[in-house]
């Protein structure tokens, strides 16, 4: 059973505060730490810090695969070697929500969009999740590679915009914009479907394909994919559509820089 506790703060710009009892360890994505108590020990580890039967070469290979999922090659390891509970907080890199998931309750595995991982208990691994169907990889919006997060404790992932969690019954089908898909449990089947009508696909603004999710299982959806947000901000910058005067333009420019930085970092 997990020994740590947590509390998620904020509304649209969230952070999660994790309380570590003595001898507990949490792994955080590099650059995600917001604050921490003085008695925590911090180490930089290769990949997610997990071992490999192939030694150092195997750890490097696991770290490279992790980097392909949108995460850093190295992680930060926070250890509480004191006699008292210590705190560390991790901030989401974008406008949106933080999702706390207990992997032990999901069979030890969760499939996520690239760059979703924020932090997790020691032993949590971020692996490659290949899309086996070629059409899913080419047309699904998420590409061939997603994240497979494996472990037995708490893990924290981030989404942009509003967030909803849906439980699908066996054979229940949900059609979504692929960019809105944040995570799904391993029992959910992910496929790509044609929009059906050429006119709708071209002029409807939703694209040629959508994601088809079939239960049983749980899916998490975000209301504002990064590509949609970046496209809207770029359009506003190019056409000058804003009502905030000079300060509105300064704020818009700042948001565009943040979005571009997030895209290039894989987050």
General description of the model:
- It is a single chain.
- This protein is an alpha+beta fold.
- It folds into 2 domains: 218 residues, Double-stranded beta-helix; 38 residues.
- It has a 6-stranded antiparallel beta sheet with strand order 5-6-3-10-13-8. The chain has a 6-stranded antiparallel beta sheet with strand order 11-12-9-16-19-14, covered by helices on one side. Strands 1-2-7-4 form a 4-stranded antiparallel beta sheet, with no helix packed on it.
- Helix 4 runs antiparallel to helix 5.
- The longest helix is centred in the last third of the chain and has 20 residues.
- The two termini are 30 Å apart.
- About 3% of the residues have low confidence.
Q: What is the CATH fold-level name of the largest domain?
A: Double-stranded beta-helix
Question: Which stretches are low in confidence, meaning pLDDT under 50 for 5 or more residues running?
Answer: 134-141
Question: What's the mean pLDDT score?
Answer: 81
**DSSP summary, beta strand count:** 19
Percent strand equals 35-45%
Largest sheet: 6 strands, antiparallel
* Beginning-to-end CA distance, first to last residue: 30 Å
Which percent range fits the helix content? 10-25%
């Amino acid at each position: 059973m997990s020994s740590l506790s947590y509390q998620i703060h904020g509304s649209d710009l969230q952070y999660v505060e994790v309380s570590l009892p003595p001898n507990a360890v949490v792994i955080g994505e590099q650059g995600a730490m917001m604050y921490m108590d003085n008695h925590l020990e911090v180490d930089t580890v290769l990949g997610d810090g997990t071992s490999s039967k192939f030694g150092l070469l195997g750890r490097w290979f696991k770290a490279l695969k992790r980097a392909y999922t949108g995460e850093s090659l190295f992680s930060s390891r926070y250890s509480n070697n004191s006699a008292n509970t210590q705190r560390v907080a991790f901030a989401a890199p974008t406008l949106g929500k933080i999702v706390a998931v207990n992997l032990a309750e999901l069979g030890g595995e969760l499939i996520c969009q690239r760059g979703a991982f924020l932090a997790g208990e020691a032993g949590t691994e971020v692996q490659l999740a290949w899309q086996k169907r070629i059409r899913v990889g080419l047309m699904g919006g998420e590409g061939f590679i997603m994240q497979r997060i494996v472990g037995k404790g708490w893990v924290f992932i981030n989404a942009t915009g509003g967030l909803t969690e849906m439980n699908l019954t066996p054979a229940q089908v949900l059609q979504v914009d692929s960019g809105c898909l944040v995570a799904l449990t391993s029992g959910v089947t992910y496929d790509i479907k044609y929009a059906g009508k050429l006119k709708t696909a071209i002029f409807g603004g939703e694209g040629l394909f959508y994601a088809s999710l079939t239960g049983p299982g749980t899916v998490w959806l975000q209301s504002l994919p990064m590509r949609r947000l970046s496209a809207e901000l770029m359009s506003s910058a190019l056409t000058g559509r804003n009502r905030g005067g000079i300060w509105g333009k300064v704020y818009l420019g700042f948001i565009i820089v943040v979005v571009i930085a997030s895209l290039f970092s894989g987050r």
